[in-house]
Amino acid sequence: MKTFIFLLFFNSCSVYATIVTFCYEDRNFPPYIFSTSNNDQPKGLMIDLILLSAKDAGFTVNLISKPWLRCQKLVKQNQANALFAMIQTNERSQIFAFPKNKNLQQPYLFQGEYAIFIQKNGPFDLDKTKQLLIDENGLNLDVYYPVAKHGLSAPLGYVVSKILEDKNVLSSLNLTPIQGLKFVANGKLDGFVIDRQIGTYLSKELKLEHKLTATKHSLLQTKWHAAFNKKFYQTNQKKIDEFWNAFEKHRSHLVNDL
């Protein structure tokens, strides 16, 4: 798997700044992360937010891209200092450092909204009926099971993948988002769970928007974080807190520029 590293120096004194290695998943997740080739600088809203906030905190940023589970392992071992974008869970909070609430609000990168992408006008395209695939209680198994054929899938290591596994509907196929959407479009998978905005972008890139649609309701709505190795956070707490607290200011500008 290709790895590319970018050192970004923000001022003439940055040689003395704290160097922070951020690991992010090596996939194309527009508009948040656009995959690049030939070791070009990565782009996207998530990258911009990380860099702008790091500049405010006085970080020198080192970006590496790896498979998601590999990123988690590297940060656990402090071979990388932080990773993005991670959903906070009780289990992950035992391993990684997440931002604390400030004025009853927790700093975050962006909000994720995970829908199930299904075949348009297919057996699971039920939002116009009274039998919703996802209702206020989540995935409606009474609706899904009677017509289930290939199972549902989500990227490996994701919280939504664990949700599907706990519901006993997770496909044995380990698929990337692009593979998953293609499988759904070709009728080889019942549905693929991915962030709504990312899935919509990818569907258009793959020219599959005429074959795919997303469920009206979401399987999961949550916040995405930049989480740190706990020991690294303890050593650099002030700067990391400044980094987290800069998210809101820069996020609003980035979203308004869309």
How would you characterize this protein structure?
- The protein is of the alpha+beta class and 258 residues long.
- The chain is 32% helix and 22% strand.
- Strand 2, helix 1 and strand 3 form a beta-alpha-beta unit.
- The longest helix has 13 residues.
- The N terminus is likely disordered.
Features:
single chain; 258 residues; alpha+beta; 6-stranded mixed sheet; 5-stranded mixed sheet; elongated; disordered N terminus
What layout of secondary structure does this protein have?
Layout: E1 6-8, E2 18-25, H1 45-57, E3 59-66, H2 68-76, E4 82-86, H3 90-93, E5 96-97, E6 111-119, E7 134-135, E8 138-139, H4 141-144, E9 152-153, H5 159-166, H6 177-185, E10 191-195, H7 196-205, E11 212-214, E12 220-223, E13 225-229, H8 230-235, H9 237-245, H10 247-256
Parallel strand pairs: 2-3, 2-4, 9-10
Antiparallel strand pairs: 1-3, 4-13, 5-13, 6-10, 6-11, 6-12, 7-8
Helix pairs in contact: 1-9, 1-10
Provide a short characterization of the protein structure.
This protein is α+β, with helices and mostly antiparallel strands and 258 residues long. Helices cover 32% and strands 22% of the residues.
Cα-based radius of gyration, to the nearest Å = 19 Å
Q: How does the major sheet shape up?
A: 6 strands, mixed
**Separation, N- and C-terminal Cα atoms:** 31 Å
Alpha-beta content class: alpha+beta
Residue-averaged pLDDT: 90
Strand content: 15-25%
Number of helices: 10
Helix content: 25-40%
What is the general shape? Answer: elongated
